[in-house]
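Please annotate this fold before class:
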Amino acid sequence: MDAFDDARPAVECLDLLTAPVAEALRAWRGPVPVEQVLYVDTDPDKADTAALVEHYGARLLEQSANCVVVAGKRAGETSLAACVVLSHTRVDVNGAVRRRLGARKASFAPMETALGVSGMEFGGVTPIGLPADWPVLVDAAVADIPYALIGSGSRRGKLIVPGKAIAGLPGAEVLEGLGI
């Protein structure tokens, strides 16, 4: 991604990442070499997509992906899943996600739950390093792009990850129409 001139392999920056993300990179077994997962240092005040795009340029909107945590409920049981969609779309929570989770009701997980269970920070949740029992639902459009700019687990910094690497994460499932 040409917006960043300081991109370097994330495995060289493990001390800048949250513990779950650093551990996932140490144990990487993805479809691309871990050295292709890059880290860029960014201002924490620009962690949100709109601020990032305003600062680094509109072309990042098409290359950025968001990871949100969704809670599905059925018969008193709650299950969590991560959903990864391009930043210019939104997650089809009440359609694709609810059906995939077999839930009667689905909604964005409470922030305290999502952050507490994932070990990540608000504005930096990433599909890399999430709990092993969470499905990682990836919109097909994310899987198809050469590189996606995603969170790094904290508000400071972003990861640049090949779309096929996101699709190959543990627990990942590529879904058409997840992002609408």
The mean pLDDT is 93. Residues 6 and 40 are 6 Å apart (CA to CA). The longest strand covers residues 65-74. The first helix runs from residue 19 to 26.
